[in-house]
Structures are given as structure tokens and as C-alpha cells.
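the two lines:
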Amino acid sequence: MSNPEKTSTEKIAIEIRNLRNQFGSQILHDQLELDVRSGEILGVVGGSGTGKSVLMRTIIGLNRKAAGTIRILGQDTDTLDRAGTRSIQQRLGVLFQDGALFSSLTVSQNIEAVLKEHTGISGKMREELAALKIALAGLPPEAGGKYPSELSGGMRKRAGLARALALDPDIVFLDEPTAGLDPIGAHQFDQLILDLNKALGLTVVMITHDLDSLHAICDRIGVLLNKKMKVGTIPELIREPDPWLADYFGGPRGRAASRQDT
Amino acid sequence: MDDTTVSPLLPSIETGSDQDIRLSGTWITQHVPTLEKCIGQWLSRKTAPGNLIVDFSAVQRMDTAGALLFLRMEKHLLEQGFSLERNGVSPAAASILKAVEPHAQISPGLSPRLPLWERILNRAAAIALEFLSSLRDLTAFTGLITQTLIMALLNPRRLRFNAILTQVQKTGASALPIVGLISFLIGIVLAFQGAGQLRNFGAEIFTVNLVAIGVLREMGILLTAIVVAGRSGSAFTAEIGTMKVSEEIDAMQTIGLNPIEVLALPRIIGLLIALPLLTFYADMMGLLGGAMISFATLGITPLQFIETLHGAAGLNDFFVGIIKAPVFAFIIAMVGCHEGFKVSRSAESVGQQTTRAVVESIFIVIVLDALLSILFSALGI
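prediction for all of em together
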């Protein structure tokens, strides 16, 4: 991650082996393997009900896995003690679907709350760092004093991203970052993610259904198929002999998105 | 990258000669307090302005917070007449510095802090204005309700009988256990206290008067109104407020339904029916409690109690209590609905307005009760 030029892509940020997730008798993931490379933008796609969000929640520790190992930044999450878990948490940032900002706090206070919990930074400096994150997320400075209910959907997403960046994490998870945005807003958000990925060397894992985002900014795509993960670039995935993949990338929307690509 | 725990290497600034400084360690968010301290110390050192070479080669990691602090320090030095040259910056740090640079001088968009007395005055003014504007809103809402009510009465098909009956059931029938229990206990308390005091004068029999007047004129209605405000007034606000949050009320308007007519009227009419009935029930339970204690402590038999009751309280006492019920019902229901419609689009606002609805309606009910009490005694009713 110390190199934003993506030359050292051999480094693995997240390593998942033999992961199984199940709810009752329903098995969502079985023998799932995934390597997320440091500094890449990985798009995660899959039909509805294939457990994209569950996979994300499992990696960030909100969901208990049934079996398998997950190593984040070289650390096995099962063997970590409290302090270790906390320090891993500090290096992950998460943007939930609608931002999930605390509605009783202003945008600035939302970011400061994270800094306050994890560091000993003074109040004034916290405000200034929050202002910096707000600016990096592409929001105007006034947005800091506003409450989430006073923001538009697109601004809430940016504010959520600013909060996810509060501790300068190494890895950021985005859950459908462009869902509900108009094409212009979605494009700008894509650009923002790409810029931050380049400038800060962020590793980005994003769940998305936006074919344009997949084409425009994702280095690789992970597809949840038959309870497993198939990872590759778009041209590689199109060559796979799977009907769902053919439908996904070869359907009318998929073709339209790939035309813009060329 | 491989150090998952926060690196123990604290950031520092070392001065080599007059011409060069060496930055080292991890310039990251977790170390901001240390960084602020060492930058402050370093800047307080008096050095004559000149050419400075800043060596980055020992910086292991730099994130946006570290970059921000460095850029501020750099700006400060430039203003003092130094000229700076960055040396050995890793590509990662360079790109972070570049990303942060345009925003380095940004300050949080906060208004300057006013002196204390001004803040107190501002706050007081804001509270007063809010009180006045809520009074105005409530008056306007009363007008709106009255208008809608008259329109509905002129065209009774627009009264939603099913909805009204549901409200009577929810606000009235379901409240019977709690209202009954509270009134019964209040009857017991009044009788106990009265008996104890009146025995000193050998006037135990007047306990019946105390219980009858107390329960019928004041306690029955007041306690019922307070319980209903807490139970149903809050429910009105929360129900309507949640619908507001999920845009159901907007949807209602677009398909041509009047939210006041559909949501507020059935609740108001329902409570107008339920509260007098509840009050009657509360009166009876209060008298029952009084009668039980009179029998247990003073040996007044139930038959004696009823006979004395006839002499002690007239029908007017009963009506003084019961006449307040529809008035209080209207206030509770209206405040509840009004606060519900005032909810903005957040979950927190539902809680806030619900609290306000309960506090406001109980406050108005008690103030009004006190005024009516004075009025009735002045009129000699």
C-alpha cells in the first residue's frame, strides 16, 4: 500500500480461504477463495441473494463465518485479541448503502466521532481533520455543519465516504456506492473513488451493479457464482462459459457499457 | 504495510545543520498529538530564515493527517521567509501531499464563537421565538382541524367510521386496565389520608365527601387525561411521524387523500368519544377504592357509603369532572397529531416530537384544569 503506482500488486490486502457462510441449512458461500491485491479496485458482482453484502459483512466482522480463514493485512482475524481487532478495524473503512451516518450528529461530528474514539487528537485538530476529509470527499466546507437529513442522497454518500476515510484506512469497502445516483453523480463518484485510490493508495472493495463503474474504474471483478468467487478482468470473465456471466456482460446493458469503454 | 499494529516508531523532526531537517517515523492520524507537539517545539526554535532542505527519506508512512500537518508547517516557514526543498519523498507520500495540498488551508466552516452573555441571550431569544411560533402553529392547526371537521360533518360519508372505531378501541378500551388500576389506587390513597386526618376531629364520615369530591371533580379526569396523553398522544405523534419519515404522507397527498382528514380526524373524534367514557370508568373505580378503604379502616359499610355519597356529592360535581373530558381529549389528540405532522425526515426527530407532544399536552391539560377549577368555584358550581 505504500506504493500507489500499483507496481507492487503482489501484496495481498485480504486473503480468504475456504470460507463458508450459512444461515440455518441454507449455504451462501462454500469453499470461497479470494485474494484482494493491495492498491486495486475490486468490483464484487453477483445475482441477488448470492450474498454479496454477507461477504462484505463477514470480512469486516459484522457476520460470523461458519468455516474458513480470513487474513486482513496479513493478520488472521480469528487469532486476534481485542487490541489486534481494534487496530485492524482502524485500517478498514466502510461506506454503507445509504451512508449510515449518525442522524443526530452533523457531518463534521460524524467524522470527529471516529477520530475521538480511536485517537487522542485535540478537539480543534479533530475539526480541522474532519474539514480535510470533507474536502477530500468533494463536499463544500459548509456541508460539515449540516445534519445528514439536510443533505441530498449523493452528498450523504460523499459524507459517508468522508467518515470511512476518517482514520486514513488501507482498505475501503463500498456497498453499492453509485446506487440511487443520477448518471452524472454516479460518474463523479466513480471518479472520486479512482482519485482517492490513486492519491492515497487505497485498496477498494466495492459491491456494485453499475456496469459503467465496473468498466470505468475496477481493476478486477469478483463474481459470486455457485457459492464461490470467480475473479478476473472483464475480458477474461466474458470468455468464461457461464450463462449468467454471458447474460450479465453480454446483455443489452452490459454491451452498452462496454461500447463506451472502447 | 506489514505492521498491522500501530507502529511504535513515533514521528520526529531532527535538525542536522542550519540548512537541513530530517523527518522520520510514521506521520499518521494516530500520532497527530505527538506530531503537533514536535512541530510546535521545532517552530518555536529561533532560526534565521534561509534555505532549508527537508529530508523525507526516513518517513515510513504518511497519511492525509500527517500531510496536512507538514503542509501547515511548510506554509508557516514560507511566510517567515524560508525557502524549502523537499527531498527523498516516496511516491506514496508525494501523491498524498499532492492530494491534500489544495485543501491544506481549509478551516472548518464554523461560525466564530460569541461571548457568553451573547450566547445566553441568543439562546433565550431562540427559545422564546420557538415558543411563540409553536403557539402560532398550534392555533393554525386548530383552525385547519375545525375546518376539516366541519366539512366532514356536512358530508358525513367522509367521516371514516371504521378508523374512528379503531381509535376508540385503541385509545379507550385498551386503556381500561391501567386507568382503572390508577384510579382505584388514588381512591384508596385519598380515603386513607382523609380518614387519618378527619379522625382527629371525630369527623371520619366526611372521608366519603373527600373521596367523592376529589375523585369526581378532579382526580378522575386529570389522571385519565395524563395517562391518555402518555399512552395515546405519544402514539399519535409516533405513528404520524413515522409515516412522514417514510414519505407515506406525501404519497397520500399525491393520490388525492387529505392527510388531516384521513389521519388526524379519526384520532381526534375517536379520543373525543373514548376519553369521557374512560373518565366515567375512572370515577367509578376511584369511588370503589374509597369505599373499600372506608369499610376497612372506618367500618363504613358499602350501603352507608352510597347513602352518604348521595348527600356529599351532587350530579353537578360529576358533570364538572366529565365536562372537561372532551376538552382535554381535543387538546391531547390535536397536540399529538400536530407534533406528528411536524416531524422532519429523520428517526431522531420522531423521538423529539413525541417527547414534545407528551410534555406539551400534559402541561396544557394541567394549566387548563387549574383555570377551570378557579372558574367553577367562582361561579359556585
